TrEMBL record:
The keyword NADP does not apply. Signal peptide: none annotated. Its main location: membrane. It is a multi-pass membrane protein. It comes from Streptomyces glomeratus. InterPro entries: HtpX_protease (IPR050083), Pept_M48_protease_HtpX (IPR022919), Peptidase_M48 (IPR001915). CDD domains: M48B_HtpX_like (cd07327). Coiled coil: none annotated. Residues 77-292 form the Peptidase M48 domain. Gene3D superfamilies: Metalloproteases ('zincins'), catalytic domain. This is Protease HtpX homolog. It comes from the Bacteria. Binds 1 zinc ion per subunit. One of its GO terms (molecular function) is metallopeptidase activity.
Amino acid sequence: MQSRFRSDRRLTVRMTVTLFLLGLLYVAFVAALIALLKSWVLVVVIAALALGAQYWFSDRIALYAMHGRIVEREEYPQLHGVVDRLCAVADMPKPLVAVSELDMPNAFATGRNPDHAVLCVTTGLLRRLEPDELEGVLAHELSHVAHKDVAVITVASFLGVIAGLVVRFAFYSELFGGRGRKDQNTIVVLGAVMGISALVYAISFVLIRALSRYRELAADRAAAHLTGRPSALASALTKVTGDIARIPTKDLRTAQAFNAFYFTPAFGAEPGISRFFSTHPTLEQRLEQLARISAELGEAAAPGKAG
């Protein structure tokens, strides 16, 4: 079922190209491992299990890691009310609604498709945002579900996980010498496996980060057009980014592993070359885009007006 979120062909093309390139990389990676380890069954089983776990259980893993729990309407009636209204306007299934008892203001959506999705917000976000700002953030997250880019990012990121698992396996498996005994061939194989794994991780890292940055801009655009209030989303972005900067660094590092799924990253995108490795565009890029949309919609005539 097609939602009423504005479709984004450029996002679709980028997701398709990224999955295609990662698919080629994955095939080459598996072929290289089979040639080196001489055990295709082991390689295929590990790859299949990792992909299956990420695809089918990504929502539970993310919720568990962020201490989120599913909440009913009786507990958070206003939150459910906003999600109900947005889903009705967007003509899409309502996801499960979850709340994480974290002071860090943020939100994320996860799940393999619109019928199996979870929308989670932190209590820190609920305390800080006005109703129209919260609506903008939730619309942003729902657009990720509607565009199916949550599932794409989940599937795409599994290759890097596999590469990391192989490196660990190379250290601990008895295939590499067992009981501390290593010959020259074993050392060569170990080095080759680790080198290939590191290369695969690096390539997948760059591809996923590029897709992640674009999908955030696409979600901002879709949310702004659905709600008709890009200024409210811009206000939420500014407020959340500023408040995250005041959260203790040790608390942010816990959340950093899930940056790609967040409304705003635990650590913001810095100017310069480092921004090419960020999961999100800079705040300036996002605000500039929302300002353009606001001008297109003529929003200045009714700033901040609730719908």
